[in-house]
Design goal:
Strand content: over 45%
Oligomer: single chain
Number of helices: 0
Number of strands: 11
Helix content: under 10%
Radius of gyration: 13 Å
Length: 116
Amino acid sequence: QVQLVESGGGLVQAGGSLRLSCAASGRIFSMHAMGWFRQAQGKEREFVAAIAWSGDNTHYADSVKGRFTISRDNAKNTVYLQMNSLKPEDTAVYYCNANRSGGIYWGQGTQVTVSS
């Protein structure tokens, strides 16, 4: 099992920034990648960004490219999502995701609200 704990959500004005953190614990060996998804009210969960557990490969949804940056600190088993130039349409619950041999794991989610 892998446990994921997110933090860093909150309320911010349009154009502002937030940084989300996701700390992983448990059976984190054989981890392939970690990422972030989001789910706005009344909509399906969608991919935001992902990063390989080793190496530099990153992937972003077109809607966040150039504004969001995903990074990781392997020593702390933590992944970050730096969100800049936030827009009201970025409002959603953001979920951390871990992909390892044997399963995919989710955090409990953290609310991000961007006011216009």
